[in-house]
Every structure is written in structure tokens, then in C-alpha cells.
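User: Modeling request: complex.
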Amino acid sequence: DAKTTQPNSMESNEEEPVHLPCNHSTISGTDYIHWYRQLPSQGPEYVIHGLTSNVNNRMASLAIAEDRKSSTLILHRATLRDAAVYYCILRDGQGGSEKLVFGKGTKLTVNP
Amino acid sequence: EPEVTQTPSHQVTQMGQEVILRCVPISNHLYFYWYRQILGQKVEFLVSFYNNEISEKSEIFDDQFSVERPDGSNFTLKIRSTKLEDSAMYFCASSEGPYAGTDTQYFGPGTRLTVL
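Assistant: Request completed. Predicted assembly structure:
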């Protein structure tokens, strides 16, 4: 699985936007970019995924660089409930492994 | 919204004992997984299961571990002879499958296993 690099931690204030970066310079053309998060004492939770185009859903937006070597998860208005560890994971869309490979992720702290 | 459930939420056992962790995946899902997370560490893949057989397993998933789908709803992880280092949070997940690129895995709340 291609490697991703994320900052260990980030901090935000409630109701402000948060931009969580992920570098994946060795991404292949068939790799999808997935984001999961893990709230304290809970199981991981799917957030969003994309291939080339920017994506939006009810939870977040995913901005993918034109060369696909980096991406940014955007939480438009952080809430206290968004405090979690966020994981950026690459998944091969061409016969790739079914498993998710979690790194250390970015621990997001949201201040009231 | 459908969800993955796991029982028990916390299991305490003595070293050397057998434990069975239970999961009820989302009903129309075809792929099932177990992951574990040792306290303070990364979430690690253990095994994936499809069509009543293991489709992929990690090197952690040795002969002490087994999985089973005993009926149409449950998915179990058995550890035959628990060791202290098996103490961890165990997460079950399921997905519709089979396209890994776009497939979403839904995780349960986990079972905390404590081996004394």
C-alpha cells in the first residue's frame, strides 16, 4: 500500500474551518484517497473518499491536488464532536487489498 | 441507519483461556473484517472474510485465531489460548464489497479484551 504522511496533531476552534492535510507522493493512478476518523473510545468511521475530483458530502469536503500527490480534508465548521483522530488511507481500485491500513493519523483537538 | 454491533463490550479473561468475540454485521453486507487496536497504538488489520472463507489475513492472525459465520447474522472471532499481548480493542467491520477502491467499511463499537 502506498504511504501517506499526516501531521501528528492539529488544533482548531469551534465553528471555524479545519483543513487536514495528507501527503501521498507515491500514489498510483488507481489509488483512491479515503478518510476515516476515530472518535475517542469508538471504532473508526468513514468520512469521505475520492479519486481525482474534489468531493463533498454531509460530513466534509475532500480537495485533491491536481497531481494527486496530496489531499486535504476540510471540515467547514468544526464542532466539539469532530475531535478525533483522522486517517488518510490509500486504497487500490484495481484488484487491491480489501484491508484498511491505518497510520497514526492526525489528532484533531477542537477548542470551545 | 444500519450499524455493526459487537458483544460483549468488555471481556476479561485469564491467560490461556478461549474467548469468542461476537459481531453482527450490517445485513446486506458481504465482506466482514476484524481489526484490533492495542492501547495507544494503530488500528491493525487481522482478517477479512467473504463467501464463508478467509480472503486475506495478516501475520498477526496466527493459528490461535479463527473466524466463523455460524449463521446468517453473526460473525465471530475466536482466540483459542489467550496471551497477555492479546489485550486490545477488537473491532468488527463489514462492507458491501467487492470494489476495494470505493468500498466503505462500517465499524462496530469494539470489544475491549483484557487478558490477566
